[in-house]
Specification:
By secondary structure, the protein is of the alpha+beta class. The chain has 6 helices and 4 strands.
Amino acid sequence: GYDPGAMARVFRHADRYSWDGVVAIAAALRARGPSPEHERLHARGFELPVYVLTGLRTDARFVNEAHFSQARIPEVDAWRRAQEAELARDPPAFFLTFSDRPDDLARLSSRGYEEVARYNMYVLLERPGSRVHGAVAARHEPRGRATLARCRAPSP
């Protein structure tokens, strides 16, 4: 069976990756109930497990954005611009990004996304007008803004 503690031990790396954070964000998304078929999530970086744990998916060409940081790939800037244009044209209900990316947080905020959950380095944003806007936050904190500080990931 699934052992969250084993997963947490395996997926804890020196580069600050924390399985607990992915599990906590996924739990916040699942807590709001079933997602309609059209609802989407887009995760920055290499956070592929969040798709598996939530059942949500992205329609973006690049599901894994880790290669966007590889300056030696000549096409990377064009790929990044195309990805952002696609995500702006057909915005997902949720974005998962990182607290140490203020430019990304500001860009998403300017597109109308609002922070609904935060756990360690992860920041979950929701687009107003999505079917369940506010439902994630409302289940975690009465003020409507979840920090997930009280939401516990499975113990290792």
